[in-house]
Write the structure tokens for this entry.
Amino acid sequence: MKALSMIQKPAEDVASLTSPIATVFVACTCLSEFINGMPRCKHVHDVQSGRLDALTQKGSRNHGTYKHVAVFSVDGMHGSDVEKYIALRPQSAIAQLLETGYEYTDAFTSAPSDSFPGTLAQFTGASPKTTGVWYDDAYDRTFYAPFSETKKHCEGKAGAEVVYDESIDYDSTKLFSGGINPANLPQAIRNGTCQPIYPHNRVRVNTIWEIVEANGLETAYTDKHPAYDLVRGPSGKGLTVGYFPEIAAVNNTVNAVIAYDQLHVDAFLAWIDGKTPANSEVQGRGLTGTPALFGGNFQAVNVGQKLSGYQNGALTFTPALLTAFDFVDRSLGKVIAALKARGVYDDTLIVVASKHGQAPINPALLRKVDPKLVASSIGVNASQITTDDIALIWLEDQRTLATAVANLNNARTALHIQDIIYGEHLKNMDFGGDPSTDPAVPDIIIRPTLGTIYTTSKTKIAEHGGLSDDDRNVACF
């Protein structure tokens, strides 16, 4: 089956998106239009992979303009997982959706494949080069450390780590602690004053959530941290309702995360009925009916892959991972049933598109390297090193780039390096940029060999964020 590859839209295309959700929606970083009663997808060149494949339709019907879009990320779900699952569960909700839907079997998420750029790829169509968001733990040469760390407002030399995870909550040990504590945010000088930079302030292009709100329609979104304020976009006004229970407050087991994900499912069902869950962040008057655009993510598969993964050899699901997939499928079934009960199922486009995959799928390829070895191998001072199954390096002094690269080349075997991306190579990458002119762009990106994770975790057997196909070839239907 051929399919349209996931693409990265240039900034000017993103900025020109002004139609309401009934007309245009960014899904799988492709502009899906619903024109003359027939959903179609623009055939846009995949600037990352160089592929231009045709859209394949498993089965669909002519349809008028959709009134609602429900979008779900099954974090970690690979494109290959779709066929594996429906082979095991031919009567599943996923199989039911595919009977009347489109499947994109060659869809690739962002590079790097971290959750933050992966989310923005879906909701802006832009890559990190355009959004300015490279990772949820990154660096900016013009930012300042949070007030909670320094007790200062934008004083001293600029340059600070930019972290948007549970650490910016008021209390990450609680599911709901009041959202984002502005004192924990990085700071920057904007319009002549020192200001905390919320995640949505970090995004340089608008989001589909902003477009829908700007057209007088309603939106609702849920994700794993209050930091997913990100989707509100630069205006900060993209969500009618945000619902962000903190995942760091629960145990890191498949069963515990299934219970956590149930909070998201309960929110989906409440929104379909036009209701707002307790502990939501509400804009304006809140919801008055089923939102025009709503959705969020599932974390259980992501955790199942990291802790249990796939069977050695056959690469089938382990029991724990299958349990996670079954939960997601039952949840999608509940969403379908609720849409039908509300009388809006035939007016709703359902999109399942993963923010990221997970690597390695094959457990035989797994190797772990202490991330401290990355730091010591550079041989020069770094302002920030972010590692998963990738390493992003911001140098303290950019004039030491050649020395750092030479040292890393000498450490290729120890660090299991496949590629060192820097200089002109980095500038010419479709997701890349120029660290000499853009304060957010890393100086060096290390792509390790497939299966290599820079971690000291005893339990983790997979990770995402990297550039491999296992990281990036995601479910999208």
Summary: The two ends are 13 Å apart (CA to CA). The chain is about 30% helix and 20% strand.
